[in-house]
Amino acid sequence: MLRSPSSRGIDPWEFIFVDDSELLKQLALCKPHGAGFLKEAALGIVICADEQKSDVWVEDCSIASILVQMVAQSIGLGSCWIQIRKRKFDDHTTSEDCIRNLLNIPGGLKVESIIALGYPAEKKEPIRRENLKYEKMRINYY
Predict the structure, then answer these.
(1) Are 83 and 47 within 8 A, CB to CB?
(2) What is the greatest pairwise CA distance in the chain?
(3) Model pLDDT, residue 100
(4) pTM score > 0.70 for this model?
(5) CA 65/CA 72 separation, integer angstroms
(6) pLDDT tens digits for range 74-119
(7) Which of 36, 49, 99, 118 is the most exposed place for a label (fewest CB within 10 A)?
(8) Domains and CATH numbers, the chain
(9) DSSP letters of the chain?
(10) Which of 119, 117, 86, 96 is nearest to 24 (CA)?
């Protein structure tokens, strides 16, 4: 993670490792749809950034997030990206604000994602070659 590339080498990202099972359960509730599995995870990594440091903090955090997932897979762990930015806890509160309050995240940091890590409960088959969307690829020109 700390070697994750970032635009102009600014490294706006910061990481919060959460391994407390009660805290993981509470984090799972901050995004009512699509984060329930976090309560069973061994670890959640909250990926944040200082938006004042870089105008492309979203991209930098996204690169760091996917690198966490790639490393996890390389050592036999499962992972899942939980999108936080632009998601809602309820009609009045964002998922980001819920997480910010729960983890005491300073106001200058934005939360992009949480990567849930653990041993996979199931093994998913890769997309079959014949089902790949080759029509999405172009060579030289559109």
Answers:
(1) no
(2) 51
(3) 96
(4) yes
(5) 11
(6) 999 999 999 999 999 999 999 999 999 999 999 999 999 999 999 9
(7) 36
(8) 7-122 (3.40.109.10)
(9) -TT---GGG---EEEEEE--HHHHHHHHHTSTTT-GGGGG-SEEEEEEEETTT-TTHHHHHHHHHHHHHHHHHHTT-EEEEEE-TT-BSSSS-BHHHHHHHHHT--TTEEEEEEEEEE--SS-PPPPPGGGS-GGG--SS--
(10) 117
